[in-house]
Structure formats: structure tokens, C-alpha cells
């Protein structure tokens, strides 16, 4: 038997991911695009409901307050998504609420001056205004780093080897949002996981009018089936005598959103009152804004690959971060209760549907704005049990993580240097945040516990983020370990041409601003 040829046992590196039906600037039919946009909206609901459900009761808020916060978060998320896809990176990314802001927000909630307020509603409003003030001040970090192109300068130190752990941990770092939540209601979560994988992968060749319906709309179909199944279990009294936690994760009538939601309500700036400002709160929030920036950088790189685009040039990435800073400023003005970041689950959906079209994401932004105003209808979809979303996250986060690993094709993984950097960065990126989580769960405060609250928030926020830890470790090692003699091993010959807008002719097709705005903001 003849020895196999090299091309038979290896695959050539590819700038753009193959196998997608629609890339960033190609569009499905309007009917299909609207259905796909609605699917992205449904997926974005998970985080938009989970964050207020967790935080509002801690602030003394009622179900009515929770509904208003969910509506506001969706409304501003829709606006930010439109701004990002039109004027930011122009990648097909949904902008939504971020978990990275939890440490400084909980720190504000437990501020003694706010905890002393006895009236729950007054305490809720006062806490909300304090969070708004901190977000408004902290947004300046991304606005300055983005529009001054400082982040573009920082990105010159990135290489494929350094970015693999960062992009991968954008997905892997969210593992506690996956099966641990599915496990809270396995009779709903596991059927959802199996059904979604079956439709999107094993039955993906089933077509209607030449459209792979089951692959393209696996999320909508499986959510509808399992939601109906969950409603049947709820109506039949299956959870009547179960613990409160089980009921909250399994029942379809525990969200209390539909009854509390108004028919029509338009969120507006300063709807909770004038923001209040405190230097300590703002400094703590700045750490979360920095973490959001790093996580979004990894997410944009993943989105570019799943949209079959080239990696965003440095100035485009910086422009996107600037607009994301504007988004966090809007979060502070409207009172969304948390800051913004790129929705990782929606990036995964680009790969699952094999549709990376920008138009689809803009349509989903329209749904976010529309259903946030029509409260009752939005609340109906928002009452989907969290376990169903967690089952989808198991697939979506894993898909985004694997996109990060795909950047290894441009590097030499027979190099001990590269193996060391990637392995250590990935391990520490998972291990250090896990230590911080376990410590916080046991001691009810983070490992950083000094008299300076803002300093505690800064350290605890940074080291609770897997992509941030991975970036610190990988970029440091990559730029200090034999970096002068290892440019080819690091993948720099391939990476270098995407650093500048004119380095690759395809950049103009993917990242040029609309309405001929490049005349006023010429790319570098």
C-alpha cells in the first residue's frame, strides 16, 4: 500500500470559513431573513430575562420593576445592535446584557448607604440610579480606548497563538451557564438538548422548497415543542409539591412577566430619575467595562469567522469598541441595570444555521425594539423557562469555543513554545476564575477583600473573567518568549495582512461604512 500524500492527511489553512450558506453581505429571502431574525431575538431573550430576574429582587424591586428592566434591556440592546452593525465593526453581532458587570453591581446593591433605606421601592430606585451613574462614567473607558484608536495599537501585540485561548474561553468560560442550569430541570433540559442537536445536525438535509428547514430553524422548532411540553407538565400539576427552586426552573408560569407587563410602554432616558455618581462605584464599574471590552474582542474575531469574513482590521475593531462604549453610555442613561457586550450565544447561532448575514441580525434588532414596546407580547416569549435556554447554550458556547481553536491552523503546533503558551493560557483561564468563584461562594466575598471596595471590585471582576485572564497570560507569554525568532510559528505572516484596512482587498467589501461615510472617517 502506497504511503499517503501530505495533502491527503492535512488540510490547507483557510482565511474564510467554508460551508456557510450566506456570508456577512449576502442575504436570504425576506421571509427567511425575518424568521431567522426572530430566532435570534428568541435566543437573546435568555440573558435579557435572567439578569433582571437575579438582580431586581436584591434591590427591593417588584415583578413590575423586573418587567420594566427587561423591556429596557431589550430596547437598548436592539438600538445598540443596530448601531454596531451599521457603524461599528459591521459584523453580524447581537449586543446584549453582560454578566461581567455582576461584581460591581452587587457591590453597589450592598452599599451600606443604600441598604439603610427601609422602603423597598425607594431602595430599588436609589440603587438603580447609583448603577446608572457608575455605568455612565465607566463607559468613557471604551469610548476613549475605541475612538482614540488606542485599542487598535494594543491589538498589534495580538497573534493567532495569543488569541486562540481568548476566543475559545469566550465560549468555554461560560460553562456554568450550560449544563449546571440544565441539571436544575433535566426533564425539560435534556430533551431540549437532544432535540436541538437532532434537528440542527442529524436531520439538517431535510428540505422544503430547497430550504434546509430543520437545520435553519432548529432553535424555533425545538423551543416550541419543548415549551409546549413544559406547559403540559405545569398544567397537569407535575411540579405542585416540588421545591421552589425546581418550580422556578421547570414551570412556565413562574416568571410573573405576562401579568405584570403593560400593553405598551416605551423606555426613555432617565426614566428611573436622575443618576447619582460615586467615585468608588465608578472605579469598580470601569473594571467590568474593561472585561467587556476584552470579551467582545474575542467575540468579534469569532463572529468574523462564522460570517465568512476576514478578521476585522485593528481600526475596525477599535471603532466597534468605541460604539460599544456609546452602548454602555445608553445603558446608563436608560437604566438597563447592566452594561453591554457581544451576545456569545447569538454568534454560535450564526454557525448553527450557517447564515452569517448582517441583515438577519438587523432584523432581530427590530424585533427586540418592537417587542420591548409591546410589553404583553414580549413577556409571553420571555416566560420561556431558563432551562430551555441553558440547553441551547451548551451547543452555542461550545461552537464559539471551537471557532477559537480553529485559529490554530495558522500556527505551528509542533512548536513546544506554542504548545506551552496555548496550554497554560487555557488552563489558567479556566482555573483562576474557578478559584475566585469557589472562594466567593464559600466566603460570600471575593479573594480581594480590603477596605477599598473599588479595588476589591476591580481585582475580583478581572479575575472572574476567563477570556480576560487568558488574554493577560497569553499575550504576555507570546510577546516575551522567543518572540523575535518565532514570527512564522506564531502565525504572524498570515495575521499581518489583516492588521490594516488596505492589507487585504476583501476588507473593503466587509467593513466599509454605509452611506459613503468613509469619506469623513478614512480607514487606516
UniProtKB/TrEMBL annotation:
Listed InterPro entries: NCS2 (IPR006043)
Gene Ontology MF terms: transmembrane transporter activity
UniProt entry tagged with the keyword Disulfide bond: no
Principal localisation: membrane
Entry's transmembrane regions: 38-57, 130-151, 157-175, 182-202, 217-239, 360-382, 388-407, 419-436, 458-477
Membrane topology annotation: Multi-pass membrane protein
Places the protein is found: Membrane
Pfam families: Xan_ur_permease (PF00860)
Extent of the signal sequence: none
Single GO cellular component term: membrane
Keywords: Membrane, Transmembrane, Transmembrane helix
Protein family (similarity comment): Belongs to the nucleobase:cation symporter-2 (NCS2) (TC 2.A.40) family.
Descriptive protein name: Xanthine/uracil permease family protein
Organism of derivation: Perilla frutescens var. hirtella
